[in-house]
Design goal:
65% of the residues lie in helices and 2% in strands. The protein has 22 helices and 3 strands.
């Protein structure tokens, strides 16, 4: 056992040494990536705003941690506690997210070199992939939720690192102990966000495809590549089962149910026909660029070109196991749909962890043609595509900032009226009910997403008190003290509201029966 551990430690040191050498040889990549991160995420670091759910974390982080455990996201809690993030600070969380995301993208470059070996044709790949990945607009929707932005970025890194660890054993036949940290990181990542199951599979597929093209990797048995594929499947199965068992044990320990996770599966909740329609709709959205803000029209042609390149290179190797290689290539093309197929439900944009990765990989892969003229032409196209989606990302972040500023201004005006009304009515405590909703008054050409561009004053409008609880939570972060109404008080407010004009008209704020009612819109919900 001591000898096994010594071999494993030697392997780790060798990998660390190779990573250090890779870093020294690719300082230009680091410089370009750093500039891209500043351009893309500067608003998130230097401008203060908060997202939906962040108001809960700012008021009571314990509440948000408990809610994560309840939905099988114990990995987020582990990351918070491990890094000592006991108090949510949006700017700090965003900065850590940017650093981790950038490192993850660079580390994947290193993985590509490890799997493909030092091949000159991949020189441009190392520049394009990190920039194309970190500039994906889908990530703007995910990192809009700043309360978990660093933790999600960290989980993404764990996925890539887990595949690297597993590949050191399965492909390079190093110490069997590499499997243990790989499985541990799988559990951690899957337990942070269920969508990372799809990302792990995707990175594994890329690992297999790239290693298959490596002339230096040979197996004694002719069917070695088939066995490699099955070993990857076996490791994934062990990691996924271990994640499921861990989730169950955590729920038992905290006496929680799994209804939230169960409701994610449309196959059970909406039926087979509706689930198939959801898959079809998501496929059109991704491959036909129905929502081009997040899914560019260039994706499908780039994906097809990348697949042709991969298949040609795999065929040229004349190795047994080519059928497994073809299956891996086909699955890579379908990987942005994995979660939709499994769940039978439309995936929110923030849940599309895989699409940015696959698109970035394909853009980078088409720069690896042997003919320099074609390679540089593809590099220019990939760089322009990255710049275009980067502009979209910055516009989305700007929309988020404008929405927050308008919400903050509206909250200040409303609270001034609430204080005056409450004082006139002799109320010591302001129990407030907001009836109706109010969207942010954004410019017509502002980019919006699933959540970006939506106001606190319109979120959760179907609750028993409409958006009231969200609004009060948001106002609490600004120092405006209001009490949450009971269900009976909310019903009473709905009875009074039809007689009132819409804010900001005189009489749109009214005190009655120990509550203060504000009518935000002509619509009552």
């Amino acid at each position: 056992m001591r000898a096994v551990c010594a071999d494993f430690w030697r392997d780790i040191k060798a990998s660390a040494r190779r990573f250090s050498e890779f870093t020294k040889c690719h300082k230009g990549v680091i410089a370009i990536l750093t500039l891209a991160l500043i351009f893309l995420y500067g608003q998130e670091i230097f401008y203060y705003d908060i997202s939906i759910d962040s108001e809960i974390a700012l008021s009571s982080q314990a509440e948000i941690l408990n809610s994560w455990v309840a939905i099988d996201r114990f990995g987020l809690v582990l990351t918070k506690k491990l890094f000592g993030l006991t108090r949510f600070v949006p700017a700090a969380s965003n900065l850590l997210m940017v650093l981790t995301l950038g490192f993850s993208a660079f580390f994947f470059d290193f993985c590509i070199q490890e799997w493909k070996d030092q091949e000159q044709s991949y020189k441009l790949f190392y520049y394009i992939f990190p920039v194309a990945y970190v500039s994906a607009p889908c990530l703007a929707e995910q990192f809009y939720f700043s309360l978990q932005s660093f933790e999600i970025a960290w989980a993404g890194f764990l996925c890539i690192l887990a595949v690297y660890c597993v590949s050191r054993r399965i492909i390079f036949r190093e110490s069997m102990l590499w499997i243990l940290p790989g499985i541990f990181m799988m559990i951690w990542a899957f337990g942070s966000y269920q969508a990372f199951v799809s990302l792990f599979i995707t990175v594994t597929l890329i690992s297999f495809l790239i290693c298959y093209q490596n002339h230096r990797i040979e197996f004694q048995k002719s069917w070695g590549w088939f066995f490699c594929g099955f070993k990857y499947i076996a490791v994934f199965a062990v990691g996924f089962i271990a994640y499921g068992l861990t989730s169950k044990l955590v729920r038992i320990y905290y006496h929680l149910d799994s209804s939230y996770v169960d409701n994610m599966f449309g196959w059970k909740t909406v039926g087979i026909s509706a689930a198939l329609n959801n898959i079809k709709g998501d496929a059109e959205r991704i491959y036909r660029a129905v929502w081009s803000t997040f899914f560019p029209k260039l994706f499908l042609p780039v994906l097809i070109l990348c697949l042709i390149l991969l298949i040609f290179r795999g065929w040229r190797m004349h190795r047994k196991g080519f059928l497994m290689y073809l299956i891996a290539a086909g699955l890579l093309a379908l990987s942005p749909l994995f979660l939709t197929i499994i769940s039978g439900s439309y995936q929110p944009i923030r849940g599309q962890i895989v699409f940015p990765f696959v698109y970035a990989f394909c853009l980078a892969a088409i720069t690896t043609f042997q003919k320099k003229a074609i390679s540089y032409l593809c590099c220019i196209g990939a760089a322009l595509a990255s710049l275009h989606q980067g502009q979209i990302m910055t516009q989305l972040f700007h929309t988020s900032y404008m929405t927050y500023e308008q919400d903050k201004s509206l909250a200040a005006s409303l609270y001034e009226s609430i204080e005056q009304t409450g004082t006139d009515a002799g109320l010591d405590t302001y129990t407030v009910v907001f009836v109706g909703n109010r969207s942010a008054n954004l410019p017509q050409d502002s980019l919006r997403g699933d959540v970006i561009g939506h106001s606190f004053f319109e979120w959760d409008a179907t609750g028993y008190a409409g958006s009231t609880n969200r609004i009060i939570g948001f106002c609490d972060t600004l120092g405006y003290d209001m009490a949450v109404p009971t269900e009976e008080q909310a019903q009473r407010a709905n009875q009074l509201a039809p007689e009132m004009p819409v804010w900001p008209a005189s009489g749109s704020v009214r005190a009655a029966d120990e509550i203060i009612v504000i009518r935000l819109s002509s619509c009552m919900t």
